[in-house]
Amino acid sequence: MRLADQIAQCRTPFIVENTITKQQMRLTGAADFASALVACPTRYSLSDNLVSLCTALAFSKGARTLACADLLRVPGERVWVEWCEAPWIKELNRYGFRAQHAQAVGRRGALIQSSPQGRRGLIKSFWANGDHESDVLASSMEAYFDFDTEVGEVPAAPDGGNGSAISVFDRAAGNADILRRCFRFRYERSWQSYYEQAQLSTCQADSIARHALGTVAIDIPVILAFLLLLATRPGLPRRSLMLERLNQARMKSGETRLLDHIEVSSPLLPEYRSAVGGSLADYPRRGPRLHHVRGHLVRRGSQVFWRVPHLRGSARAGIVRSRTVTWTLDAPSEFRSSPS
Prior knowledge:
By secondary structure, the protein is of the alpha+beta class. The chain has 2 domains: 3-264, no CATH class; 280-339, no CATH class. Helix content is 24%, strand content 27%. The protein is built from 9 helices and 16 strands. The strands form 4 sheets. The protein has an 8-stranded mixed sheet with strand order 8-7-6-5-4-3-10-9. A 4-stranded antiparallel sheet has the order 12-13-15-16, with no helix packed on it. Helix 3 (48-59) packs parallel to helix 4 (85-94). 31% of the residues are buried.
C-alpha cells in the first residue's frame, strides 16, 4: 500500500506518557494529517529509477542545486511526494551515507505546503516500514523555505513564527549551499512543548535534535532535485492513476478507498555499463584503474547540464561510454530537455 493511503487511513492519535508522573500528552502524528492527504489535490509517486536519479542529482559532488534556485517552484499550494526507500538508500550508500535501516522495505513521503507562487513554504516528512497503522510515523521536525532568500538574509517562517530554528549546512559548499541559505528546521509546536517540559540537559537536547533533523533534512535535496526535473519541458514521464473502479469494488467489500495519484518516472535511459570487448593488447598505454565517476550538474546561462554517473578506467572492463543530458531554459518556468 502506498504511504499516502496509509496516512489517510490513520485514526489512532500519537500519545506519550511520562513514566514518572504518568501524565499523558498528545503529540502531532500521522493521524493528524489524514484529512490533509485526502484533500491534497496533487499526489506524486516516484518510480525507483527516478528516485535513484534525484538522489544522485542531490548528493553528487558535482551537483549545486543553489545555482538553479531561481528555477525551483512547487507546482501547487499543497503537493504530496512519496517514494520507495530501497533505491533511495542504495543511492545514498553510493555517495557515502550510512544506511538508516538494515533492510529498506518501507516508503517515505513529504507533504509540501507552499505559497501560490511556489517559492516559499513548509515541508513535513513521513515514513512507514510496515502495513500496520503503528508503523506510520511523522517527523517531529518540519522544514520551511524561501527560495528568494539572499546572502546574509534568513528565510522567514511561513506562519510568522519567531521560535528557535536550526540551520543545516555543508561547510564544503559555502555560500553555494541551498540548505544553508534557503531552509530552516524547527520542531512542530506540540513536540517543541513536549521537549521543553522534559527539562533536558544541553547534551540530551542536542542529541535528540540531531536525530530529529536526520528524519527530514536528508529528504530535502531529493525533493529539490525532483522539483527541478518536474519543471523541465515536456516534463517527466507521468501516468495518472484513477482508481474509481477499484475503489467501487473495495467499498462493496467494506475496504477503505485508495487515493488517486500520479506515477512519475525518469526521463533518462539507465546508466551505461561497461561493454564486453577490447583487450589490453589493443591499448599501448596503461590507463587508470576502473573507477566510478560521480554525476555533475552545471548551469551555464540558459542551460543545465547533467552528466550521469558512469564507470571509467581499465580497458580490461571494456569500453565505457557516458551520457550528458542538457535542459535548455526558455523562461523561468519552462525548460526543453534533450540528450546529447
